[in-house]
Specification:
Helix content: 25-40%
Number of helices: 12
CATH architecture of one domain: 3-Layer(aba) Sandwich
Order of helices and strands: HHHEEEHHEHHEHEHEHEHEEH
Strand content: 5-15%
Radius of gyration: 25 Å
Structural class: alpha/beta
Number of strands: 10
Shape: globular
Length: 468
């Protein structure tokens, strides 16, 4: 059989083409596998979705734990509804990296009773448990160094002796996380009125989980090009004594609620002041100065009041006007405090220097939320938005959320440091079973997760990229 030169060239060309396509296909398969693995890696850095916390019998290693707890419980004069994490550290653990600061006591004796750290169990890294970097109860729970909580407690101290001093223990913890795990954002959350600790933990699980899902890159190509690496958040949640009475839905319960609220509102302001002096000034601002880490506050209802106060409170010494000494983003979800705090001579807590402390402040507003409407006309109410629009328009900016949970305008992060009131009636719409105030607690949806990710991305991630 005689082969022509043309035939040989055709055969060789065909082989080369086949090899090219085979190599291309192989590369695409390899890249797809790599992207899939990267997504799993991203998920492991951000959260551990789907992992169910378990009860670990070895959380307690002291046969006298019960007696020790009862003694401290009596000395500290606390309510177990606000430190359930101390009693069930495995069962109530959140399934992602972070911390919970437990704040107890009354307005004249507020103190940090425990700081829990969520981490994979030593016995099973697919499940999560809680260790404590501080525990005033010393109930025999393992601390984060592998010992017991004795050395991280003040066994004979009273609430007034403890105060908020334990918060400083978070500083080396955050430094280690930033250095070892590449943390880019520290996100501080606070829940609001009438929320026991177990419910705060459940709410944080929903809020943070929805944020993480919304932040996940949409495709393997985006992961291939490194999208998502600019957002590796660390969670810090607040738990605080947010009620005195058990609030029921009957008329008697509603009367108790009105009495209770008169006590709890000022308590929220006081907690915010203490957190400004401890968490903000002694932990977060030094961390930001050293590493450039972004600081985000997200509060709901009275939690927005706490974190607004924590962001803006000053003892008269003022704040550095550089970006290194600012909260990068403050988000209030249906905030429960007067909008007039941003207007001169309208409220005792005038946020006069808000632009020195916070780079961007955004509050949701919904006409479907009745809890913040009467009789207070709080910043989360439609009445407050209209009143501000008609009377104090120069002190605020205004925007709205679409049905998908995204802000329509792109420039909401650059409003001349004015707080932005976002009409969210298309998203915050329905009553959540077991809650009051109509749509007041309708914030645990995927749409709010997309909203949070949009404002965090546009006000911290993309804005930072634009600066660089």
């Amino acid at each position: 059989m005689k082969l022509s030169w043309t035939g040989i060239k055709t055969a060789v060309t065909g082989c080369l083409v086949c090899c090219f396509f085979a190599a291309t296909f192989g590369c695409l398969v390899a890249l797809s596998i790599w992207a899939f693995v990267s997504e799993k890696g991203l998920d492991s850095r951000l959260t551990a979705l789907g992992r169910i916390p378990e009860i670990f019998a070895d959380s307690y290693d002291d046969p006298n734990a019960g007696k020790r707890y009862q003694k401290r419980h009596k000395t500290l004069r606390t309510d177990s509804r606000f430190h359930k994490l101390v009693l069930k550290p495995g069962y109530l653990a959140l399934p992602f990296p972070g911390y919970l600061i437990g704040i107890e006591g009354n307005i004249n004796s507020l103190f940090v009773s425990h700081i829990g750290k969520f981490q994979p169990s030593i016995n099973d890294n697919r499940s999560w448990t809680t260790c404590f970097i501080y525990n005033a109860y010393y109930s025999g729970i393992r601390d984060c160094d592998g010992g017991t909580s004795a050395k991280n407690s003040q066994n004979d101290s009273k609430p007034e002796d403890i105060g908020f001093a334990p918060v400083i223990k978070l500083k080396p913890e955050l430094e280690k996380a930033i250095e070892n795990k590449g943390i880019t954002h520290v996100i501080v959350y606070s829940t609001g009125f009438n929320t026991p600790q177990w419910e705060s933990l459940a709410n944080y699980s929903d809020l943070h989980r929805n944020l993480i899902v919304a932040a996940r890159p949409d495709s393997w190509l985006e992961r291939l090009w490194g999208k998502g690496k600019d957002f590796t958040p660390l969670f810090i949640g607040l738990s605080w004594r947010s009620f005195e009475f058990e609030i029921t839905e009957n008329k008697f319960g509603q009367n108790l609620k009105n009495i209770d609220y008169a006590v709890i509102g000022p308590r929220a302001d006081k907690i915010g002041e203490e957190l400004a002096k401890s968490l903000r000034e002694m932990v977060l601002f030094p961390i930001k100065q050293k590493f450039g880490t972004k600081i985000v506050f997200v509060g709901h209802s009275l939690g927005a009041r706490i974190l607004s106060q924590a962001a803006y409170y000053s003892d008269g010494e003022g704040a550095n006007s550089s970006d290194q000494q600012k909260i990068d983003l403050l988000v209030g979800l249906q905030g429960a405090f007067p909008a007039e705090r941003y207007v001169p001579d309208r409220d005792q807590y005038f946020y006069a220097d808000h632009d020195k402390f916070v780079a961007a402040a955004i509050y949701t507003v919904s006409k479907n939320d009745k809890a913040v409407e009467h009789p207070f006309r709080y910043i989360g109410s439609e009445k407050a938005r209209k009143h501000a629009l008609d009377n104090f328009g120069s002190y605020f900016s205004f925007s709205f959320l679409g049905d998908d949970g995204r802000i329509a305008q792109k420039e909401f992060c650059d409003k001349g440091n004015k707080p932005v009131l976002v009409n969210a009636e298309n998203v915050i719409r329905h009553n959540i079973p077991g809650t009051g105030g109509d749509a007041h607690s309708d914030i645990y949806s995927m749409k709010i997760g997309r909203f949070l990710w949009q404002v965090i991305r546009d006000c911290t991630v993309e804005r930072e990229s634009a600066v660089r």
